[in-house]
Amino acid sequence: MQRKIVPDVISEQDIAAVKTGASALDAAELMASANIAAVIVTDDNDRLIGIVTERDLTRQVVAKGLTPAEVKIGDIMTKNPDTLEPNDSAVDALKLMQTRKYRHLPVVINNKCVGMVSIRDLYSSVMDAIQEDMRETEAFVFGDRYGA
Prior knowledge:
Layout: H1 5-9, E1 17-18, H2 24-34, E2 38-42, E3 48-53, H3 54-62, H4 73-76, E4 78-79, H5 90-100, E5 104-109, E6 112-118, H6 119-142
Parallel strand pairs: 1-2
Antiparallel strand pairs: 2-3, 3-4, 5-6
């Protein structure tokens, strides 16, 4: 079975979002309070226009000795990020993340973010699928000897 991003990997989520005028400190505080590692950036119509990750905050703010309260998200966000759609496969998403070295990808419908997938979510889903395939194969090969 080919797992789809929604609902096999993630279900509906409350999306953590900021606007371009928010500060890096605002984004960091939102990430900390929600226990997440990435937030999306939206325009005034709630359309996805960017993403900011812990890595962005570390490399573009902290490592440069900048003051997080003074750095605007619009200056450090990844504009027009790669995205997934709900029907994309988990395996294809994992390949994209591995190739591009992403750890988070927004899931969108009509430019509106409906979820965020992490590499951890995908890894867990793919491992579950492999284990399920192994159980089905064992049941087929060994029949009822193992309670199948």
